[in-house]
Amino acid sequence: MAFSALFRASSRPAGARRTGLRGAVLVALAFGSGLLISNNPFRPSTTNPDATARGYLRFKEVLSYVDRDYVDSVNTEGLADYATAQMLERLDPHSVYIPAAEREQNDVFLQGDFDGVGLDFNLFCDTMTVVAPLGGGAAAQAGLLPGDQVLRVGGQAVSGARLTNARIAQLLRGARGSTVALEVHRPASARTFALALVRSRVPNPSIDAAYLLDEQTGYIKINRFAATTYDDFRAALADLRRQGLARLVLDLRGNPGGYLDRATRVADELVGGSRKIVAIDGKGDTYDSQVYAKVAGEFEEGPLVVLVDEGSASAAEVLAGALQDHDRALLVGRRTFGKGLVQQPIALSDGGELRLTIARYYTPSGRSIQKPYGSSRAEYRRELAERAAHGDLASADSNRVAGGPRFRTDRGRPVYGGGGIMPDVFVPRDTLACSAYYARLQAHQTPRALALAFYQAHKAELEGLRFAQFNATFRVSDAQLGALAAAAARDGVPADPAALRRCAALLRNQIKAYIAQSAYGAVPYYTVLGAHDAELQQALHALGDGSAQLALASNK
Questions:
Q1: Residues 157-169, buried b or exposed e (16+ Cβ, 10 A)?
Q2: Phi, psi of 500 (to 5 degrees)
Q3: Cα→Cα distances 324→28, 140, 321, 542, Å
Q4: 113-203: CATH homologous superfamily?
Q5: Which of 73, 100, 156, 454 is the most buried (most CB within 10 A)?
Q6: Residues spanned by CATH 2.30.42.10 within the chain?
Q7: How far is 554 from 532, CA to CA, in rounded Å?
Q8: C-alpha separations of 508 from 25, 246, 447, 505, 514 in Å
Q9: Topology of domain 207-429, per CATH?
């Protein structure tokens, strides 16, 4: 099957923007996740009441004078928001104030479902383009297809209107049972039509995929720890056990965290006995606690490999750290993000929310994984880029955490605290995926846009193929990659033939995976990606040569 050069202007991505709604939310929440659920037992401090009262009165007085007497009109709400943000800047990078207008979008990250039409979209060339209708949603039931272009939502133009993802999401969401009108253009048939979709409860899964890689090796990818993650994980694991699972690859790459108790409950399914999973230490003893395994888990014995990278943070690090400290799993990948702080969400009277750091967490061996704050939040966020410049993502020998405090796992292996979790098996970051040219293609979403165009043009042919046939026969040729580069050049990415040759295999596989996702779903998408997934291939090698058997020795 050939990859047609269907590079219409309407399908080309615009701007160096990450426009996927789900991706944008995950990135935004990466710095605020790691939440401790409770009933907000906050009371005014009794240790320093006079200073607190003086500070409160000073701020109230200054704001009143500014509002009443300043020469120009001012937005006092905006000033208060700014002052709050500046105050929290003096604390740690994860204590944040979320205004009421942004709270709903942030809350979606932690929910297992939401009210809306069920539409995953990107903005290509300022055109709202359907990536996938979500299962069970009104968009899927109405027959919307990947590649469809949404022109108007509720009478408002959303294509060519320079709207943000957040604004479009607001238009799509609404009360369950309410109706929203969409005007849709289908490029493959050059047809424009109207739809009236009734908003409903739409699943927002935190498990991207759960399937068998072979007859006995399971794979589960958790993208965050949301309200339903533990129940979904347990159900997925039980289903894989029924299919013959005897060993497991758990993928936590890019997982920014979420609810801490969901992560510890997942750990409890994998750790036997009554071993410690995490210790929480706050000011005084108000938030101090220790979490231990207590249930008979679904997979307490059997080879286990956990994939981690620099995007694995917070609750994901709690899980990975517990499994490593108890020698229950072999960790494969690169050093994790390094977030060892716990936030408590506090609802405020204005509808906003304060996410305040109230404790630090420690792995069973006693490690604090929190990396240094630096002098500013901007410096803290640059730390990942500095890792790359220092060589940490390319070589285990360049990692500076090995100079931190030393701890021991149950079997005596050395592990280190002070800046993320170092995996047992280091896999360098793919330099081709980090090249400037490849990064610009991703920023412009060119491979995904062209894969969607191909799917729309060849939908009937793809429906006649089983995935196994597609996977065995489909290939993107050199000439077709040239057409990809030409489409990118028209969108502002200068041609670079040498760079294109270097990342050609990676691009072919990526485009094929996107097409598989549109035509066959999530499992085929990950199946295709796996062929060029260095961390996954290393995990399978570890399982095959018995390296992961270290898990069994400490559980018998």
A1: ebbeeebebeebb
A2: -65, -40
A3: 28, 41, 5, 15
A4: PDZ domain (2.30.42.10)
A5: 454
A6: 113-203
A7: 33
A8: 28, 32, 9, 5, 10
A9: 2-enoyl-CoA Hydratase; Chain A, domain 1 (3.90.226)
Please tell me the distance from the alpha carbon of residue 449 to that of residue 391, in angstroms, as a whole number. Answer: 33
Q: How many whole angstroms separate alpha carbon 247 and alpha carbon 550?
A: 13
Euclidean distance between CA atoms 499 and 41, whole angstroms: 56
Query: Number of C-alpha atoms within 13 angstroms, CB side, residue 13?
Result: 28
* DSSP string over 64-113: HHHHHH-SS---HHHHHHHHHHHHHHTS-TT-EEE-HHHHHHHHHTT-SE
Give buried/exposed letters for 23-43 (b at 16+ CB in 10 A, else e): ebbbebbbbbbbbbeeeeeee
- Which residue reads 């939908």 in tokens? 459
| pLDDT tens for the chain, residues 1 to 556 | 433 333 333 333 333 333 333 444 443 444 456 666 655 544 556 777 788 888 889 999 999 999 999 999 999 988 998 999 899 988 999 999 988 878 877 777 788 778 889 888 888 878 899 988 887 789 988 989 888 999 999 999 998 888 888 788 888 888 899 999 999 999 878 899 999 999 998 888 899 999 999 999 999 999 999 999 999 999 999 999 999 999 999 999 999 999 999 999 999 999 999 999 999 999 888 889 999 999 999 999 999 999 999 999 999 999 999 999 999 999 999 999 999 999 988 898 888 899 999 999 999 999 999 998 877 788 888 888 888 778 887 777 777 676 678 999 999 999 988 789 999 999 998 888 888 999 999 888 899 988 998 998 899 999 999 999 999 999 988 888 988 999 899 888 999 999 999 999 999 999 999 999 999 999 999 999 998 899 999 999 999 887 776 555 444 4
Helix (H, G, I), strand (E, B) or coil at 444: coil
**301 φψ region: left (φ > 0), alpha (ψ -120 to 50), beta (else):** beta
- 113-137 burial, b at 16+ Cβ within 10 Å, e below that, comes to bbbbbbbbbbbbbbbbbbbbbbeeb
**Catalytic (active-site) positions:** 314, 325, 339
Type of residue at 322: A
Q: What φ, ψ does residue 440 adopt, rounded to 5°?
A: -70, -35
Side chain identity, residue 318: V
What six digits make up the tokens of 125?
Answer: 């060339």
* 186: nearest Cα among 197, 195, 198: 195
Start-end ranges of CATH 3.90.226.10 in the chain?
Answer: 207-429
The predicted model scores a pTM of: 0.86
DSSP code for 134: P
The Cα 136–Cα 122 span in angstroms is 20
